[in-house]
Specification:
It is a single chain. The chain is of the alpha/beta class and 276 residues long. The protein has three domains: 1-38; 44-121 and 229-275, 3-Layer(aba) Sandwich (D-Maltodextrin-Binding Protein, domain 2), CATH 3.40.190.10; 123-226, Periplasmic binding protein-like II (D-Maltodextrin-Binding Protein, domain 2). It is 43% helix and 19% strand. It has helices spanning 2-37, 54-68, 79-87, 101-108, 158-169, 173-176, 186-195, 238-243, 245-254, 258-266, and strands spanning 44-50, 71-77, 94-97, 117-122, 124-128, 149-152, 180-183, 200-204, 218-221, 230-236. The strands form two sheets. A five-stranded mixed beta sheet has the order 2-1-3-10-4. A five-stranded mixed beta sheet has the order 7-6-8-5-9, with helices on both faces. Helix 2 (54-68) links the parallel strand 1 (44-50) and strand 2. The longest helix has 36 residues, at 2-37. The protein starts with a helix and ends in a 10-residue tail after the last helix.
């Protein structure tokens, strides 16, 4: 009788162990299902930004993250270089170009979610950190003490296109073209000027408001009539539509918010009339 009781007790203990194991397995399965069905965590956006917007974008991205909790990783280069990277499959969610030509081309080629939108207009300036007097505007480049000046590559950078238009429109190109140095982007032009590699640069007004460069040098705003409007555009890419649709749309909308408008104006940009 005692042997039977012992065996029965052992069986009861084993059965309880099995129940415990089954309960744990069931709980684990429920947990896994819940994880699989949970909404995706769009905690980070990857933004491709034209070089002229780099400093302003640091402020805009910080405000966007504070408001939404979504972090922003910024990749900056000339608009043409970024466009080439997008065509090659770069994992960008949103593209901010220094003109509308590049995002329009991407839209026509099927790389975007809808048409690009104009978020700002840029301005071209003559900028120097040396002892060059820029008050004469583009004519300052003809001075004998100006040995070189830089523009962004007009083949890939909208501000480079504007610089060429301004130089040709002023009738000075033939006289000063031998002094001209070409950088990849306005960001590189700014580096050339700030480092003393060149004496003067044709660049974006935004450099005057940069936390690192804004207090340096002198500048002169180029007459807007000398170049076509620098219409800057934003577009959500197919990559962003597939990977981070809600966050990408939130960011695009944020670019047209009063908060962003204030930052853009602070950095020398003007806003589209329908944003005012």
């Amino acid at each position: 009788m005692s042997n039977f009781v012992s065996i029965f007790s052992t069986l009861i203990d084993s059965a309880q162990d099995v129940i415990k194991i089954k309960t744990l397995v069931l709980a684990l399965m429920v947990s896994l299902v819940a994880c699989n069905n949970a909404p995706s965590n769009e905690s980070q956006l990857t933004i491709a930004v034209a070089s002229n917007m780099h400093s302003a974008m640091e402020d805009i991205a910080m405000q966007f993250t504070q408001k939404t909790g979504i972090s922003v990783q910024v990749s900056s280069a000339s608009s043409g270089v970024l466009t080439a990277q997008i065509r090659q499959g770069a994992p960008f969610d949103v593209f901010l170009s220094a003109n509308m030509a590049y995002p329009k081309a991407l839209y026509q080629q099927g790389f975007t979610d809808g048409r690009p939108k104009t978020y700002a207009y840029g301005s071209l300036i003559l900028w120097s950190v040396g002892d060059i007097d820029t008050s004469a505007g583009l004519a300052a480049l003809t001075q004998s003490n100006v040995k070189n000046f830089a523009i962004a590559n007009p083949e890939t950078a909208p501000y480079g296109i504007a610089a060429i238009q301004a130089l040709e429109g002023s009738g000075l190109m033939s006289e000063i073209k031998n002094k001209m140095v070409v950088g990849e982007s306005v960001g590189q032009v700014n580096q050339y000027v700030s480092s003393g590699t060149v004496q003067v640069g044709l660049t974006s007004t935004a450099v005057l408001f940069s936390s690192t460069l804004g207090s340096k040098g002198v500048s002169h705003k180029i007459d807007n009539d000398l170049y076509e409007p620098i219409e800057q555009g934003i577009v959500i890419l197919k990559m962003g539509l597939n990977k981070n649709p809600e966050a990408s749309k939130l960011f695009q909308n944020f670019m047209f918010s009063p908060e962003t408008g204030a930052v853009l104006i602070e950095y020398g940009f003007s806003l589209p009339r329908d944003s005012l």
